[in-house]
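Fold it.
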Amino acid sequence: MVTIADVARHAGVSTSTVSYVFSGKRTISAATRRRVESSVIELGYHPNAGARALAGRRSHVLALVVPLRSDVYVPVMLEIAISVTVEARRHGYDTLLITNDEGPGGVRRVAASGLADGVILMDVQLDDERIPLIRGQRTQAALIGLPDDPSGLSCVDHDFATAGALCADHLADLGHREIAFIGYGPGTYRRHAAYAERTLAGFRERAAQRGLRFLHRPCEGTYESTAGAFTRILGDRPGTTAFVVQNEAAIGPLLSLLRSSGRTVPEDTSVLVLCPAHVAEQYVPTLTAVTGPARELGQVAVEQLMRRITAAERGEQAPDERVLLTPTLALGQSTGPAPR
C-alpha cells in the first residue's frame, strides 16, 4: 500500500510538505505542489478519509483529461488545453493534466485523492466509460464533448451535427450532387468519438434531404491512406465533383492528389473542410471551411465546472448544462459551382 512517505520520496520533498499540499495550511509553491500531485497520481496514492477531511476546503486545482492519441489533431487539443489553463487561472485555479490513456482509472485516482476540486474531460465518446464513474463518485465534472446520455452532466461542444448539415447545404446550393466525405481513421469510429459520428450523421441526414449522393471513406490522414481513399472514391463514383474533409491531416495529401490527377480546384472539383479557420487559410487556394472557436470550448467548460463546485459547496443541486457552439461557414476559394 502506498504511503504518504512514498509520495514524499518520489516527489523529493518532506512528508510535512505533502501534508501541507493536502491541508492547505501553508503556502506551497506551484512547482512543488505540481510535483506532489504528479507523484500522488503516478503512485496511485489515496489519502484516507481523515486526511481529506483535514483539508476542509478547496484545493484550487482542476484536473484536465487530455487525449493522447495518434488520430487527434494536436494543435486544436493544445488550444483547448491552453484555454482551460488560462480560464482556470482567472478563477484562481491551477490545472493538473491527466492523459486519457489512463482511462477511468485516472479519473478514479484524481477523484479519490482529493487533489482536484473537479475534472474536465476531453475527447468524449458517445458511450464514454468514464461517465458512470463520475456519476457514481459524485465528482464535479464538465465535459468538452456530448455523450449519448448527458443527464446529470455539464457539457459543451461544437454543434457537429449542424456543421455536417452546413457542408451538405453549401455544396447542394452550388449544384453538386456526387460528393465524397473523407473522415477520420476507422479507429475513431470504432470508439464512437462523438465529434466524428455526429458530423457524419448531420451530413448524411441533410444530404438525404437535398437529394445528394455521397460516399464516406475513413482515412488515417497519411499520404498513402488518402491516396487509397481517393482511388476508391473515383473508382466507385467517377462523377464525384466535391470532397468534404473532416480529417485535417488528409487535407494536404488530397489537394496534392487532385493536382496530380489533373483536377483544378474549384473549377473541376470543390473541396470543403471541417477545421479551424487559420488552418484553411494556409493552403492555396484558401479553403472554404466549416469552423468553430476552439478557445471558447475551454472557457465555457471551466465556467460550468466552477458553477458545479460552488453549488456542491453550498449543498445545492449542481445545475445540468448543455451548450452547443454554433458552427460558421468561412468562404474560401476552394468551392464553386459544380462543373457541367
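The chain has a mean pLDDT of 89.
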